[in-house]
Design a protein that fits this description.
This protein is an alpha+beta fold and 138 residues long. It has one domain. It contains three helices and eight strands; from the N terminus they run H-E-E-E-H-E-H-E-E-E-E. The protein has helices spanning 12-22, 60-68, 92-101; strands at residues 37-38, 41-43, 49-52, 72-76, 105-106, 113-119, 122-128, 131-132. Strands 1-2-3-6-7-4 form a six-stranded mixed beta sheet, with helices on one face. Strands 5-8 form a two-stranded antiparallel sheet. The N and C termini lie far apart (51 Å). It binds zinc ion. Zinc ion (ZN) is lined by residues 76, 78, 80, 82, 84, 86.
């Protein structure tokens, strides 16, 4: 934006300063939304990129153990694996409360696929499909 109302000429240093202040600060967060997929990569709520640890689908006891060890859950109820970006992240306190009292249950004919992802902020279990675990997934 230039204005002709000011008649004084800018010095070169002032021009440089003005240009530099207009340059957006490069941020690795600018292209991502915490808690969602960006391209093929899921980011945790703190904005850390998550990578699948392996192909192993966790069973209910393993899910509980992982949560008790501090893992968070990202739940995709439609079961596509989170690409629809309607992931829900149960809060850690509720997770621990359920994990300390019960193991989750799969629906008989449509067990959720639960895989472990890992990032700088810790582990996240990606839950694709239906999981019953107290009041967490309602
Ligand atoms: Zn989905």
């Amino acid at each position: 934006m230039s204005s002709k109302s000011g008649s004084k000429k800018q010095t070169f240093a002032e021009i440089v300063a003005a240009v530099e202040s207009d340059v957006p600060v490069p941020s690795k967060d600018s292209a991502i939304s915490p808690g969602r997929f960006s391209g093929d990569t899921l980011y945790d709520l703190a904005g850390h990129a998550l990578r699948e640890v392996d192909d192993h689908a966790l069973d209910p006891a393993e899910i509980r153990d992982a949560v008790l060890a501090g893992a968070l859950l990202a739940w995709d109820s439609c079961g596509c694996g989170g690409y629809c970006n309607t992931l829900k992240w149960p809060d850690p306190e509720s997770l621990l409360r359920e994990a300390s009292s019960a193991i989750p249950r799969f629906r008989k004919n449509h067990p959720a696929r639960v895989t472990r992802l890992r990032g700088e902020g810790g582990d996240v279990l990606l839950v694709a499909g239906d999981l019953r675990w107290g009041d967490l997934f309602r």
